Amino acid sequence: MYDLENVFAKILRGEIPCKEVYQDEVCLAFHDAYPKAAVHVLVIPKDEVVSFSDFAQLGAERVGAFFRAVQQVVAELGLEEDGYRLVTNHGQDANQEVPHFHVHILGGQNLGGLLP
Ligand code: AMP
Known about the structure:
binds adenosine monophosphate; 3 helices; 116 residues; globular
């Protein structure tokens, strides 16, 4: 069940500000408020989807458009040469905090191993 009061829904409705880096008809990208790396940007779809498992149900066209936008954000952030990491958390074992599907783009430094 999608929570219309989650913080990213509020950002999409313009009720909470964000540091926007990119927007098109399918998604919004903005800087994480509590960055975990030198570059930490979140990309969220404009659809009401809780996590990746919901998002993947939207179909190839929507999913493809979203990930093409993620790639464009990565390129605009200048991360392709030195590298970057994409992360998405689903559910309690992943400690998902915000119940609106999002991809973390992390980079701008050596990110170390996958898990601490
Ligand atoms: P996750 O644990 O994958 O759900 O990640 C949620 C992310 O959202 C965390 O990295 C938070 O720092 C970030 N976050 C929470 N509130 C805001 C906000 N108002 N603006 C930007 N990022 C936020």
